[in-house]
Amino acid sequence: MIKCSTSLWSADLANLASEMRRVEPFSERFHIDVADGHYVPNLLFFPDQVKALRPHSRLPFEVHLMTTDPQAWIGPFVEAGADIILFCLDSAKNPGEVLRSIRKQGKQAGVSLLITESLELLAPYWEQIDVLTIVGTAMGIKGASMDAGVPDKLRRARELISERGLDIVVEADGGIRRETVPLMAAAGVDYIVPGSLMFKEEPAAMRQWLSSLET
């Protein structure tokens, strides 16, 4: 079953608590993009904000660090209530150290790969990864179309994980649309990161449609 890590970036940011309650029954977790204005030219979500949101949902919080120094943000977001921490592979000087730091805190650790990055870059880190996020658009850009290479990349990720006998969640983030999700489903994706697909549609109807892709 394809699951949803619903992106709060696409919610009504002035009414986040009520928006979370509205879509919570149709989500498995919430995806929270963190941008520092350096790695990407956006400013999004910060630890105190995440801490304030934590009491409003029982679902896991998946924090996606789009920052120049992911190591520095692990502690603050763990304290704020993060359950899963993802970081951009190319943002870390030592990705293995960042993965170990996240897991040492008792949290699930993951990496996101840019459109231009190959799965082969993960060779030294497979054993330390809990979540692999395949990014389908330019990083930090909302509303862009999915890169055509994403389904093949998802399929290849599933193959590599299976060959190694690992239990890694494969997630697709970016370009999540009615016309692209079926391609992701066919490629074996575990999670999608819906934004407008969840918040701009009727969530119950959207989840019913998503379930129909698996029949």
Indicate the CATH architecture: Alpha-Beta Barrel
Biggest β-sheet strands, sense, barrel: 8 strands, parallel, barrel
Distance between the termini: 10 Å
pLDDT under 50 segments (min length 5)?
Answer: none
Describe, in plain words, how this protein is organized in 3D.
- This protein is of the alpha/beta class and 215 residues long.
- The protein has a single domain, classed as TIM Barrel (Alpha-Beta Barrel).
- It is built from eight helices and nine strands.
- An eight-stranded parallel β-barrel has the order 1-2-4-5-6-7-8-9.
- Helix 2 runs parallel beside helix 3.
- The longest helix has 15 residues.
- It is globular, with a radius of gyration of 16 Å.
- The model has no long low-confidence stretch (mean pLDDT 96).
